[in-house]
Amino acid sequence: MSVEISVFDLFKIGIGPSSSHTVGPMKAALRFVETLHAKNFLRQTATLQIELFGSLALTGKGHGTDRAILLGLAGEKPELVDPDTIANRLAAIRSAKRLVLLNLQVIPFEEKKHLIFHYDQSLPAHPNGMRFTAADNSQKTLCQEVYYSVGGGFVVNDKEAQLPPQLHEDTSIPFPFNSGDDLLQLGREHGLAIHQLVMENEKCWRPETEIREKLFQIWQVMQGCVQRGLRQEGMLPGVLKVKRRAPELYRE
Predict the structure, then answer these.
(1) Contact criterion met (CB below 8 Å) for 86 and 15
(2) Which of 26, 184, 232, 237 has its CA 20 to 30 Å from the CA of residue 57?
(3) pTM (whole model) above 0.90
């Protein structure tokens, strides 16, 4: 059985620069603190340690993984966080050396001590592995979870990583296809353009009005990203000291 993928599984709103290294880790961090809250461990949490493995450790700082995790632990979602507030929020966390988990529980937090990059280690299921551990005042472990950011902003835990991918495989769509050739052939057979075929498939999961609203929301965010890029001066984050060029090119 083929796994059917929605347009909204592919096009997601989230902070850059990477769906696997930024969006995924933010979602994993949020998922962990929500798990603590659901298990009534959040108020008992005194310390929290996050360990990054494999590719997340090796390239995480350049891709904003550290920043994304701090924001996720604070309760932010990739599609809702205001990019213009991120720098000040992170500066406040780092200067105060404390973090408010899910905007509810205050804990001490020093990145060098509590956010560990294992540059020479990997977890078994995927190169983008993370381990979160919460402990109480006596250093007793309350909860520990392993997550993998498997690409496209998708996150799975240790157990889910052993299962085959499941998106919309129980849905029967009118125009299933597994390749570009299949898609073009369906268009010829039914006299439909690609966007028409995809719309008919999408309507199996949500009404057309909702589809168009969600697509327009994504378009608006894309336009907002362009405008933000045209306003921002200075250097890009990271050690390479790459100058932002868009404002100058736009003025020229």
Answers:
(1) yes
(2) 232
(3) no
Closest CA to 31 of 148, 127, 150, 137: 148
Q: Return the DSSP state at 21.
A: I
Instruction: For residue range 220-247, list pLDDT tens digits in order.
Output: 999 998 998 999 899 876 667 889 999 9
Residue 63 to residue 61: CA distance in whole angstroms: 5
Taking the CB of residue 163, how many other CB atoms lie within 10 A of it?
8
Tokens of 246: 């868009």
Q: Give, in order, the Cα–Cα distances in Å from 182 to each of 14, 75, 110, 209.
A: 31, 42, 52, 27
Q: Measured between alpha carbons, how far is 28 from 30 in angstroms, rounded to an integer?
A: 5
- The residues, ordered by sequence, that sit 6+ positions from 98 with a Cβ below 8 Å of its Cβ are 106, 107, 108, 109
Task: Determine how β-strand 115-118 pairs with β-strand 47-53.
Answer: parallel
- Give per-residue pLDDT as tens, 99-156: 999 999 999 999 999 999 999 999 999 999 999 999 999 999 999 999 999 988 899 9
**Residue 48, burial from CB neighbour count under 10 angstroms (0-12, 13-18, 19+):** buried
Report d(CA 184, CA 120) in Å as an integer.
45
